[in-house]
């Protein structure tokens, strides 16, 4: 059972426009959400996170929105740049315990065209 | 600052051969450590995690094992590799609180 879902395997946008990457989750125990960016043959790089007590977190060109009632979060990149072309993973962590495991979605390949 | 190392970067091994991948973390103490695998065209699957020396938890039944002989060292092993073990293996560390995990550069394993 996939607890974190990224239903769009790919997204293509023009440079300068907004990129919106979506993620849905099913586990109501998730309380911390993260976005990672991954280039081929490299490890994922942390981008931005949000706690369940917030509904928005912004860092430069990146904004993450969380809708707890819909169990949905999204990553907005404005303006999109060609260097943003990568696979973006959504991840979630559940409260409790000491392991703080992350459950990842399958990723969305973003292509930003010049 | 903290850094995480993985080696080797790439590895080609025949079916039935043993495996040992090593991960070390610098600049932090008592981290949580994680091994993930990314199979071709798929997401990141958590294989093992460790909250302390000698403490290993397995997430999925498989042909692999993990060990943590020192605080900042995490090893992924197999006695006999299968074709299905091919993939991109990633080590990560995190602090003992909700938050980010930081990933190493990964090892590309091809089993032939």
Explain how this protein is built.
The complex is a heterodimer of chains A (114) and B (112). Chain A has 114 residues and is mainly β. Chain A has no helices and eleven strands. Helix content of chain A is 0%, strand content 55%. In chain A, the strands form two sheets. In chain A, strands 2, 4, 5, 9, 10 and 11 form a six-stranded mixed beta sheet that branches. Chain B has 112 residues and is mainly β. Helix content of chain B is 0%, strand content 58%. Chain B has strands at residues 3-7, 10-13, 19-26, 32-38, 44-52, 55-58, 65-70, 73-78, 87-94, 101-103, 107-111. In chain B, strands 2, 4, 5, 6, 9, 10 and 11 form a seven-stranded mixed beta sheet that branches. Chain B has a four-stranded antiparallel beta sheet with strand order 1-3-8-7, with no helix packed on it.
Tell me the distance between the termini of chain A: 38 Å
Distance between the termini of chain B: 38 Å
Rounded Rg of chain A: 14 Å
Assess the beta-strand content of chain B as a share of residues. over 45%
Topology of helices and strands:
The complex is a heterodimer of chains A (114) and B (112).
Chain A: E1 4-5, E2 10-14, E3 19-25, E4 30-38, E5 45-51, E6 56-59, E7 62-67, E8 72-77, E9 86-94, E10 103-104, E11 108-113
Parallel strand pairs in A: 2-11
Antiparallel strand pairs in A: 1-3, 3-8, 4-5, 4-9, 6-7, 7-8, 9-10, 9-11
Chain B: E1 3-7, E2 10-13, E3 19-26, E4 32-38, E5 44-52, E6 55-58, E7 65-70, E8 73-78, E9 87-94, E10 101-103, E11 107-111
Parallel strand pairs in B: 2-11
Antiparallel strand pairs in B: 1-3, 3-8, 4-5, 4-9, 5-6, 7-8, 9-10, 9-11
């Amino acid at each position: 059972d996939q607890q974190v879902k990224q239903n769009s395997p790919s997204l293509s946008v023009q440079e300068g426009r907004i990129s919106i990457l979506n993620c849905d989750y099913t586990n109501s125990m998730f309380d911390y959400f993260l976005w990672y960016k991954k280039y081929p043959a490299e490890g994922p790089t942390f981008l931005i996170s949000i706690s369940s007590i917030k509904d928005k977190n912004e860092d430069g060109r990146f904004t993450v929105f969380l809708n707890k009632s819909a169990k949905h979060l999204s990553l907005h990149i404005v303006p999109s740049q060609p260097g943003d072309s990568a696979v973006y993973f959504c991840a979630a962590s559940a409260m409790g315990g000491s392991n703080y495991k992350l459950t990842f979605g399958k990723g969305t390949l973003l292509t930003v065209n010049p | 600052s903290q850094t995480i190392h993985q080696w080797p970067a790439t590895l080609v091994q025949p079916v039935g051969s043993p495996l040992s991948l090593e991960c070390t973390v610098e600049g932090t103490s008592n981290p949580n450590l994680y091994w993930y695998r990314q199979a071709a065209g798929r997401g990141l699957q958590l294989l093992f995690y460790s909250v302390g020396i000698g403490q290993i938890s397995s997430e999925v039944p498989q042909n692999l094992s993990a060990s943590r002989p020192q605080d900042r060292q995490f090893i992924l092993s197999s006695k006999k590799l299968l074709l299905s073990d091919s993939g991109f293996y990633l080590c990560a560390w995190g602090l003992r609180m909700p938050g980010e995990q930081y990933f190493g550069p990964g090892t590309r394993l091809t089993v032939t």
